[in-house]
Amino acid sequence: MVKIGTRTCLCGIVALSPRLFLALALLSILLGAIHSLLKLARHTDAKTAPQRLWRTKKASESYGVVISVIDGDTVRLLDGRIVRYIGIDAPERSQPFYMEAKRENEKLVLRKRVHLQFDVQRKDQHGRWLAYVFVKTSGREIFVNAELVKRGYAMAYTVPPNVRYADLFVRLQREAVRSGKGLWREQRDRIATYIGNKRTLIFHRPTCKYAREISQPNRVVFRSRKGSMKAGYRPCKACQP
Questions:
Q1: CATH number of 61-179
Q2: Which of the following is catalytic: 81, 103, 128, 171?
Q3: Backbone dihedral angles phi then psi of residue 160, each to the nearest 5 degrees
Q4: Tens-digit pLDDT profile for the chain (241 aa)?
Q5: For residue 215, how many other CB atoms are within 10 A of its CB?
Q6: Were 154 and a residue from 148, 161, 181, 203 both cysteine, which residue would form a disulfide, CB within 3.0 to 4.6 Å?
Q7: Pairwise CA distance, residues 98 & 19, whole Å
Q8: Rg (CA), the chain
Q9: What residue segments make up the domains of the chain, in order of their start?
Q10: In a 3-state reduction of DSSP, which class is residue 39?
Q11: Which residues have CB under 8 Å from 186's CB, separation 6+?
């Protein structure tokens, strides 16, 4: 403040005012930004809380794309996980009917997005994920584990504590055995010694690929080689029964 005669000049204060106003303005902007950030954080928490709850509820489920089929009950996903189907067992590589079961599994899931549903135990001793597998085909969802048992390409195989669909698998297996589907037809044929074709009058070993191709109306079972030949059938040149 400067005195000129008896008058007081406020030019000193006026000279400081722009700096003060600028500082106050910056402080106001900063406080406003902090308030906006806090408000946004509260809004985000409220919005995402149901999503976190949903993930918790759906922790027993997952999704993936099948990039390869290992056998009739095991697949590999795009993310690297190997998934073993719960509750069923398909023939291994060295066992009869391995390729048939594997091809059937490929028809159902290969290069498709699958829905995985877990049970109590999620992994086996080999580090494979254990799951019930579902796939959408032509607008409907297929329960792959159950479908393979139903078609006779896998057997019911219950290993506690994963028993959620055990009764279903056993029931489907009974129906497949009774109908002689898939591997159960092969097992039924093995009880008999030879399989004859009524159309070609050729008989085969039950494991012969040509025996598998015989349609049910043309299929005849013989208990002995002698009985086959006595009935007018000749042996297959491929399997040499």
A1: 2.40.50.90
A2: 128
A3: -60, 150
A4: 444 444 444 444 444 466 666 677 677 777 777 767 666 555 544 343 333 322 333 568 999 999 999 999 999 999 999 999 999 999 998 888 899 999 999 999 999 999 999 999 999 999 999 999 999 988 899 999 999 999 999 999 999 999 999 999 999 999 998 888 888 876 655 556 789 999 999 999 888 889 989 998 899 988 887 788 778 888 888 888 8
A5: 9
A6: 148
A7: 85
A8: 37
A9: 2-57, 61-179, 192-235
A10: helix
A11: 96, 97, 206, 207, 212
Which token pair is 178?
């009774």
Q: Does the active-site annotation cover 92? A: yes
Type of residue found at 223: R
128 catalytic per annotation:
yes
Q: Is 175 a catalytic residue?
A: no
Residue in 42, 52, 55, 92 annotated catalytic: 92
- pTM attached to this predicted model: 0.58
Of the residues 84, 151, 185, 205, only one is catalytic, namely 84
Let me know how long the chain is.
241
The packing angle between helices 166-179 and 183-191, to 10°, is 50
Residue written as tokens 């007081």?
8
